[in-house]
Structure formats: C-alpha cells, structure tokens
Amino acid sequence: MSSSISNTRAATAPKILVLGATGPTGRLIVADAVSRGWDVVAFVRSPEKARGMDGATLAIGDARDEAAVRVALQGRDAVVSALGTPASPLREVTLLSTATRAIVNAMKAERVSRLVAITGIGAGDSVGHGGFLFDRLIFPLLLRKVYADKNRQEEVIRHSGLDWTLVRPAILNDKPGRGAVRALTDLSGFHGGTVSRADVARFVVDQVSEADWLRKSPLITW
Q: What is the pLDDT of residue 22?
C-alpha cells in the first residue's frame, strides 16, 4: 500500500475524500481544503444537503456502502471522516463503526492509506476529561450509546493498518476560529475545554499532509 502522506506532501493539490461533509464541521473541512486549492470530493447522501458547497465535487452515496465509497475513493490521496450521529439515549448506535469498517475496507482495496477521523472528547482514554457537566450529565444521559460506537469506530481504525490519526475535539462551539489549538495526548489534570469547529477543521486538514500525529489520538482544545 502506498503512503499517502508522502504523496500529499509532494503534490501541489492533494486529492481528498471527505465523509460527513454536510455536517457543521464537515462543511468547514471542505471549505478549508478548497480554500487551499485542494481537489476535494465531498461524499454526501443527497445533493440537496450539499447546497453551497462550492469548489468541491459531489459523490452521492451512503458511507456504509463499501462499493459506493470505493467509487468515490478512486484517484484520492487521503480520506477525512467527519461522520457524526445524533444523541441517542435509548437506541443502540452502530452507524459510525459500520461506516468506518466500510471506509477502511474501501481504502485498502483502492490502496489509499491516509485516514484522518474525528471522534470526540470522551472516546477511548479521553473519557472522564470533559468537565463536570459533560462527564456527569450529558455523557451518561445522552451520549453513552453514541460514544460506545465511537469507541468501536476508533478500534476499527487502530487495527486497520492504515496511516491514521484520530482527532478528539473538546466541546465544540461555533465561535470564530483563533487560528491555533492545543493538541494533547497527556490528559492528566485536564478536565473540560472548548474549541471552535473552524479550528478543528483547520487542524484536521493540516493532518492530511503532516505526520506529527501519525497513529496518535490528540485531544484538541483552546
């Protein structure tokens, strides 16, 4: 499998596929990459949801459909996953892990190795670092099943053999970006924190062609 990190460094315009492109963070990722002159394919379930996504090529399909993802992946250097799912206090959640398995399989089949995926604070060993309100109320009452699937998603990626980076944003807000974030893997003493979607998007796009956080899971915060 070729190294897409070296490929994207060498290319003047990296070619990326963005999944979850119509979500609030996904849209910012697409816009950021397009503003850099990159070749962006946005994978969406319907073109109606992608209105205003100027500068990107649309690929229509379901992220759980490996065949559809493979078609969209052709000629790409890297994949960015901004897949999300609503809070689900009662029903089991499987979308994230199911889609991620399809994405990983498609990437291997198409020989694309670079994957940057967003999960969130509370996934993996970042659990318990979201602050009192998040850890004691929001997480157990609304997000427990979502994060169980985020954990499964992270495990699929960790064992994929790909060149992955897992990005775990702190509590997201829609404020203007500050242009810089703190990226942490040592969370001792860290509890709470926020970060703008704009700064998350910039950080995620940066990772496509950088190896500083290769096979790591940084928590990003202001």
A: 97
pLDDT tens column, 131-159: 999 999 999 999 999 999 999 999 999 99
Q: Residue 28 sits in a domain of what CATH number? A: 3.40.50.720
CA distances from 50 to 18, 34, 44, 117 (A): 12, 14, 7, 20
Domains: count for the chain: 1
The residue among 153, 165, 175 whose CA lies nearest residue 203 is 165
- The token pair at 61 is 């399909």
The rounded radius of gyration (Å) of the Cα atoms in the chain is: 16
Q: How many CA atoms lie within 13 A of 106 on its CB side?
A: 26
Closest by Cα among 102, 86, 83, 78 to 26 = 83
- The model scores a pTM over 0.85: yes
User: Domain of 49?
Assistant: 4-221
